[in-house]
Amino acid sequence: MWCRYFMGGTIANAFGKIITAFLALSIIVGLTTSASANAKYAAIVIDGNTGKVLHSYKPDAARFPASLTKIMTLYILFDYLKKGRLTTNTKFYVTPNAASRPPSKLGLKAGSHIEIKNIIGALVTKSANDVATTVAENIAGSETKFARMMTKKARSLGMYSTTFKNASGLPHRHQKTTARDMAKLSMRMMNDFPRHAKAFKTRRFKYGRRAYRNHNGLLYSYKGTEGIKTGYTRASGFNLTSSVKRGNKHLIAVVMGGRSSRSRNAEMRRLLNKNFPRASASKRKKPLSQRIALMDPKRASRSIRYTATTTSLNWKNRQAKRYIVQKPIVTRKSYGLGKYTSRRSESGYDIQIGAYPDRDLAAGKLSRTEIKAKSILEGHRPYIMQYEKNGTNYHRARFANFGSRTSASVACKHLKSKLNITCIVMLP
After folding, report:
1. Within a 10 A sphere around the Cβ of 112, how many other Cβ atoms?
2. Please, which of 141, 203, 208, 243 could form a disulfide with 226 given CB 3.0 to 4.6 Å?
3. CATH number for 173
4. DSSP symbol at 215
5. CA distance 16 to 271
6. How many CA atoms lie less than 13 Å away from 53 in the CB half-sphere?
7. Residue 41's Cα: distance from chain center in Å?
8. Considering the domain boundaries, does residue 61 fall inside one?
9. How far is CA 174 from the centre of its chain?
10. Res. 304: pLDDT tops 60
11. How far apart are the C-alpha atoms of 278 and 97, rounded to whole Å?
């Protein structure tokens, strides 16, 4: 009797343990597959040091980017800032069209202006659609033209499966991307504009009397998070791209199509936790071209080259509509791009503040220096002198008509000490 009871108890206990283990396994499998069971779900995790794909699920499936679109909007804006065509103090005009964009929005008033430093803060935290449209209209003349710029830039960055139709990510059936392409864009953003990309770490942005909290919850809850962007529409689900550094390790991850912001964030944390042990701890990153190639081995044979953002700023009043699109603040004339002659008519000495392979860079430098050093350089005409060196054309940015070397040296000394502008005195 005792033997039967003992054996029965042993069998029962063993069976109970098997059931418990099965249930635990089922829960684990359920947690790890719940995200992938979502038809909108796609994900990828990239080693930021090597470009190696550590994890992927439908990385090349077409998805709606939602507000991840604004990463490209900011990429182009940062490109203009880096090349000196704009400054963070530049003001963009807000059209009625931009002001009418649906939420999420900052609530800009038609006819008002907003500085670029506030534009950056509003896009990375509030993800404001009215601000995104304002950027598009001031740079390209219309959001449609700007979207074409965005798509062209995407191709130059190796984002071959991405098409943009607006600057905000508001629903459009032809605006598509992939998790892999968004990982490429995130890597390029962090590498090409390290100074400006720090804005993605902003937790709170204050504009007027209101303060806005960044939508990216990982900034507050996951150690090492550098950003970069969230997004949501009904069609896309909840999207998130992340750049996270811990020690010498760097991961770039994308989760698309989450059912809620909470589940999307949980999935992102799960993927990061799982793949950090596998990430390279090398202090030296591989060259960017190699990392991009490893992210997309099927297309590694296609050349990926960075091309400067260029656009033709042709503006026309649209009388047929109820409102007239204001001529933008950003024009070649207003920022010195094209207004400087290449000839110098005055005698005397020059001050040179730089030499650039791109004429627009030289013009932008002259324009900004004119504004910052008006009291020092008043009466001294800015001009650009072109010269050739080793088969490459360079453009010297100069201010002319200093009567003596002494007067030019004094002005140059003031530029260096008061405004931190490097310059040299030249005899033409």
Report:
1. 13
2. 243
3. 3.40.710.10
4. S
5. 32
6. 21
7. 23
8. yes
9. 21
10. no
11. 48
Q: Residue 136 domain-assigned?
A: yes
Strand partners, 389: 392
Helical H runs in 35-142? 69-82, 96-99, 116-121, 129-140
Q: Phi/psi zone of residue 338: left (φ > 0), alpha (ψ -120 to 50 degrees), beta?
A: left
Asked if residue 294 and residue 160 are part of one domain, the reply reads yes
**Rounded Cα–Cα distance for residues 60 and 353 (Å):** 47
Domain stop point among 260, 283, 299: 299
Asked whether 108 and 134 are in contact (CB, 8 A), the reply is yes
Range of the domain at 357: 349-426
**Residue 194 sits in the same domain as residue 284:** yes
Contact 280, 50 (CB under 8 A): yes
Structure confidence by residue, pLDDT tens digits, 63-90 = 999 999 999 999 999 998 888 888 888 8
Q: Is the pLDDT of residue 193 over 80?
A: yes
In a domain, 246, yes or no: yes
Q: Alpha helix (H) ranges present in 109-233?
A: 116-121, 129-140, 143-156, 179-192, 218-221
Query: Which two structure tokens, joined as six digits, stand for 350?
Result: 């020059």
Residue 242 contacts residue 189 (beta carbons within 8 Å)? no
pLDDT higher than 90, residue 21: no
Q: Distance from CA of residue 4 to its chain's centroid?
A: 72
Whole-number Å distance between alpha carbons of 133 and 128? 9
The tens digit of pLDDT for each residue in 151-192 reads 999 999 999 999 999 999 999 999 999 999 999 999 999 999
- Indicate the length of the chain as a whole number: 428
3-state secondary structure of 47: strand
